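My main concern about presentation is that the manuscript never shows what a single data entry looks like. In essence, backbone conformation is discretised, so a fold becomes a row of integers matching the chain in length. An entry of this sort, consisting of the sequence and the corresponding backbone structure tokens, reads as follows:
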Amino acid sequence: MRKLLNTLYVTTPKSYLKLDGENIVILLDDDEKFRIPFVNVESIVCFGYMGASPALMGKCVDNRVSLSFLKPNGEFLARISGKTKGSVFLRKKQYLISDDEDFCLGFAKEIVAAKIYNSRVSVEKTIRDNRDKINVERLEKTSAKLKEAIKTVYLFNNKDELRGFEGVQAKQYFSAFDDMLLKQKDKFYFCERSKRPPLDNVNCLLSYLYTMLSFDITSALETVGLDPYVGFYHELRSGRASLAVDLIEELRSYMVDRFVISMINLKQISANDFTAKEGGAILMTDEGRRKTLKYWQERKKDIITHPFIKEKIEIGLIPYVQAQLLARFLRGDLNEYPPFLCK
């Protein structure tokens, strides 16, 4: 249980929420584990199936406190928000501003700059932690090029050119990815990014976990009342959660890439967890997915200090904090949207 930006996050799956006077009470196996005054909370996000008492749900509806339910893996289930909710006006602002080319270009620049910055931090971390095991000169050249690219981001005048530049920098970053893989090199090697389908074990892991992260971000946007399908950087496309695709860019390197590198280097996954199909496509076995999800959920429980709000949070809550910050920015409570910048 953790309160961030006036949102109560209930991350223990078997928790049950109830109302006791003017307090929200969290029960685990019928024992009280947490209590907070109702007046201190603007929204509640619950990761689990146990639910909440009708009294608490009624109190939330009457006081315009949104109550969101997600599966333990982060998949969005439902949100209770009452008759009139601020998210109506928030979404109206989102829809209007999505047609503002100047706003969208400025937002896109911040997202791409953060993506390149976080990619560079991952390269620098490998240099710092494994100097005796890697080609330091090659990684330092990559890091230097990414550093210069961050400045160049702000020179573009349209999103199409920016997207092309982002793709070039992604290739630059991934050119060093194989150097960050230190173990199991005969089975876990990386030449270039391949997506549909993934053509090697590493790309298979990356694609699978990018998908998992996109689900988390989509759920996070739903909980704050934003429409995940209306983005500012990526174009609208039927069935694509464009705003979630926007926000995933700043989080790919920190939340997924580092995790994949760690899984491989710690030998938490092996070549036996993958299978090759006709045509060269690589898929994970059921056991491989089980392992990956197990370690992914454990990783999301690790604690960091969020670089903007300066509070300790679980890594798995990063998408939810970023969604809240974006909502506050769109409401005018923040002067600008602060992308997640890792250390």
User: Anything to note?
Assistant: The mean pLDDT is 90.
